[in-house]
Amino acid sequence: MDVHTKANLKMWNRMVPINAKSKMYDVAGFKSGKSSLSPHEIRELRPIVKGKSVLHLQCHFGMDTLSIARLGASKVAGVDFSPVAISLARKLAKQVGLDKRSEFVCSDIYSIPAGFRKKKFDVVYTGGGALFWLKDLERWGRIVSGFLRPGGVLYIKGFHPFSNSFDEEASEPRLRYPYFHRKEPIINKFHGTYSEPGADFESEEHNWSFGMGELVNVLVGAGLTIDYLHEFMTVGYKRFQFLVKGRDDRWGWKDPNAGVPLVFSLRATKQKG
After folding, report:
1. Torsion-angle region of residue 140: left (phi > 0), alpha (psi -120 to 50) or beta?
2. What is the DSSP letter of 60?
3. Which end of the chain lies in a sparser environment, N or C, as judged by fewer CB atoms within 10 Å?
4. 3-class secondary structure, 37
5. Single pTM value for the model
6. Could you give the number of structural domains in the chain?
7. Which residue segment(s) compose the domain that 170 sits in?
8. String of DSSP letters for 112-161
9. Digit-coded pLDDT (tens) for 23-74
10. What is the CATH number of the domain that holds 111?
């Protein structure tokens, strides 16, 4: 495990309890039946996952994974490198009665145990802000393709790569980070967390940038065909200081006609031949 992964792992292990108690994650609501997926994810995922086996990469503590099971997936599996997150995911699965239809594996995405790597799934899912934690996008693409059966589907919901260039501490839109990929990580230190900005928590994050074209080309190079790419002008929480809350409880631009995409969803299918 390299120095960047170690730093991120230390941060996520400490952040899990904060996220689990936050209003943003609403674990109590999830236990009572609420889905942790966004409305457009539910709409796009339901026909893809019903009756299918689903692998969730970078699953955190499993709420999205288990929400996919509730959409009708026959079997779900989640992988995350944080043992604290995986322990909570397994606990949640039992509490909501989904432990028989779910499996959670503690592993860095680039070091998944050989036995598990042999498994094949109908759908691979990744969501939230997972992608900018990947230091090697091409290798990730090969891993995704390796888990998919021929004709299987990858579904991504994530922060739009262009939005990742904005300064999260600025009161008005301002570019701060590179858009295109570079080998060196972006290293930042923050106070608080995205789920609890006022928390007494100091973090050091190691992220990597990438462009939308880079992502698409990685998937095509891994043998996947792009089915659609959708872009959205709102995000589920106040990611930037300059966003405003809309009537749908999602955060977007002050002028919705003058912004850029904040979130995207992408579906791609593995070629059969």
Report:
1. alpha
2. T
3. C
4. coil
5. 0.96
6. 1
7. 3-270
8. --HHHHT--EEEEEE-TT-GGG-S-HHHHHHHHHHHEEEEEEEEEEEE-T
9. 999 999 999 999 999 999 999 999 999 999 999 999 999 999 999 999 999 9
10. 3.40.50.150
